């Protein structure tokens, strides 16, 4: 029998950026670049060219920030205990709209056309084994059209075209008393057939907590701030062939990884770091750049608490949890150019 239990992500307690597969800037009709920033409650619309701000107040606790390319709007999974709300927050211009998905409590989101793929914070229990619901949602009809299940607790959802990739971690502690091996894996969801396929032929002890897809490959980092066991390879970037189900390359990083994004030209991956205790410490070298042709790793010396990343037009925008400054870095030279000001800490940033 399946029992329900709420597993709230640590973003509730530590306001850290979630994901990552969709970070960026959007462009207004007057040609200005606009940066959408959130501190998990408010949303700040920052004009990068004029450095003007427009704050949108919001009562919903935001789990992740995403951009709906079809409807040209911000989509934020979230919840509010006070309002007894579970669902999606939509932002069009400065207008807000809420849509309940209760009892489904969305966290991560990947969009393909009018389809959203989301995971729920309401994790099911099959004995001692955690099971997460995956919801397929139609944004046109504003209805859930399919519910699926994967073993473990989902840590990230990204995608490319009609394929969504779901990284799900099932801790060894939750399975050892059941007499079964760990069932951590990355699942490919076909959004035409709704079939789930495990990427790895054998379930893994650990899986990446952050993913991105580029040029036919998945890239992943293990993360130190989400209760990953100490033996997990938290200072590695891995390259995965999703068709063969094998790790083709492992890159050693200088310190534990937190989040990552692809460069504008697709030639590098930028990785933010946390300290060995998984806290947002003030690191002297908070950011690394990994060349995808040579896999050489360069480090940026600039003490900030890097919590969110945006890559656009050769510039890297880094959210800083110490203050409201967003650091602007030239992607090729990997040098800090300037800082721009937001009205709130940039815990989340999103692009169109």
TrEMBL record:
Secretion signal, residue range per the UniProt entry: 1-24
SUPFAM superfamilies: YVTN repeat-like/Quinoprotein amine dehydrogenase
InterPro entries: Quino_amine_DH_bsu, WD40/YVTN_repeat-like_dom_sf
Assigned keywords, A-Z: Signal
Domain of life: Bacteria
Protein name: YncE family protein
Source organism (scientific name): Collibacillus ludicampi
């Amino acid at each position: 029998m399946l029992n329900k239990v709420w597993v709230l992500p640590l973003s509730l307690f530590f306001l850290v950026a979630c994901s990552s597969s969709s970070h960026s800037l959007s462009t207004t009709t007057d040609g200005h670049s606009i940066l959408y920033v959130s501190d998990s409650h408010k949303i700040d619309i920052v004009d990068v060219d004029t450095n003007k701000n427009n704050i949108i107040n919001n009562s919903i606790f935001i789990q992740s920030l995403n951009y709906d390319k079809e409807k040209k709007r911000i989509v934020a999974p979230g919840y509010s205990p006070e309002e007894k709300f579970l669902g999606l927050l939509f932002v069009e211009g400065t207008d807000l709209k809420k849509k309940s998905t209760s009892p489904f409590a969305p966290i991560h989101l990947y969009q393909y056309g009018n389809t959203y793929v989301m995971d729920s914070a309401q994790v099911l229990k099959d004995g001692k084994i955690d099971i997460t619901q995956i919801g397929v949602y139609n944004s046109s009809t504003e209805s859930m059209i399919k519910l699926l299940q994967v073993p473990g607790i989902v840590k990230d959802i990204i995608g490319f075209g009609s394929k969504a990739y779901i990284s799900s971690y099932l801790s060894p502690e939750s399975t050892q008393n059941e007499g079964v091996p760990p069932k951590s894996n990355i699942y490919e969801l076909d959004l035409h057939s709704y079939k789930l396929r495990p990427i790895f032929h054998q379930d893994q002890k650990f899986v990446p907590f952050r993913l991105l897809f580029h040029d036919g490959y998945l890239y992943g980092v293990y993360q130190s701030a989400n209760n990953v066991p100490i033996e997990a390879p938290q200072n590695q970037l891995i390259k995965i062939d999703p068709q063969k189900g094998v790790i083709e390359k492992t890159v050693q990083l200088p310190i534990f990884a937190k989040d990552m994004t692809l460069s504008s030209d697709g030639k590098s991956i930028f990785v933010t770091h946390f300290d060995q205790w998984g806290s947002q410490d003030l690191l002297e070298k908070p950011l690394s750049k990994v060349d995808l042709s040579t896999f050489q790793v360069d480090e940026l010396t600039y003490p900030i608490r890097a919590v969110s990343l945006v890559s656009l037009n050769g510039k890297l925008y880094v959210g800083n949890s110490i203050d409201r400054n967003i650091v602007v870095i030239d992607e090729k030279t990997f040098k800090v150019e300037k800082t721009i000001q937001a009205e709130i800490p940039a815990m989340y940033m999103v692009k169109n």
